[in-house]
Amino acid sequence: MTRHVVQRGLWFEEFETDVVYKHRPGRTITEADNVLFTTLTMNTQALHLDAAFSEALPPFNQRLVNSMFTLSTLVGLSVAQLTQGTIVANLGFSDIAFPKPLFHGDTMYAETVITDLRESKSRPGEGIVTFAHTALNQHGDIVATATRKTLVRKKPTGATEAGSA
């Protein structure tokens, strides 16, 4: 019989606090990414869409990547390693900050530290995981941080360590 391994995130019991989970590969942000996301979300901010307007404004003198795209990509980069197929729901975001902007052509890398784990009192078989996400550009500058609470499934009875099915 052939063993099958399915890529998945971590079960609640597999998360460890005070470990830095580095999510790779990174994601190079293009002009098309920024313009598409900005227009899809009806954000008409000229700093994202109007090159002539943005070039005339110090201190950056260029268009900025939409911060909501930055936040979405930061979380998205963590999914395959941490929550693919194991998350039940996002419970909330807090402490979101964008200390430096992202520009077209920058590459974003993400890291996550688990800051809190607790079993759900109301939902047996699930637990609450608190993530401290950090996005860095290709120079190592922090471009975004966010705290996210999620509801994650516990390992089902009979599930194997490698995610075999």
The overall number of domains is 1
What is the CA–CA distance across the termini?
A: 12 Å
Provide the residue-averaged pLDDT: 94
CATH homolog superfamily? Hotdog Thioesterase
Order of helices and strands: EHHHHEEEE
Give an overview in words.
- The two termini are 12 Å apart.
- A hairpin with a 5-residue loop joins strand 4 and strand 5.
- Strands 1-3-4-5-2 form a 5-stranded antiparallel β-sheet, covered by helices on one side.
- It has 165 residues and is α+β, with helices and mostly antiparallel strands.
- It is built from 4 helices and 5 strands.
- It has a single domain, classed as Hotdog Thioesterase (Thiol Ester Dehydrase, Chain A).
- Belongs to the enoyl-CoA hydratase/isomerase family.
- Pfam families: MaoC_dehydratas.
In brief, what are we looking at here?
By secondary structure, the protein is an alpha+beta fold. The chain has helices spanning 31-40, 46-49, 51-55, 67-82, and strands at residues 20-28, 87-97, 107-119, 126-136, 142-153. The protein is 21% helix and 34% strand.
Keyword list:
165 residues; alpha+beta; Thiol Ester Dehydrase, Chain A; five-stranded antiparallel beta sheet; 4 helices; 34% strand; elongated; MaoC family dehydratase
Please render the helix and strand layout as text.
Blueprint: E1 20-28, H1 31-40, H2 46-49, H3 51-55, H4 67-82, E2 87-97, E3 107-119, E4 126-136, E5 142-153
Antiparallel strand pairs: 1-3, 2-5, 3-4, 4-5
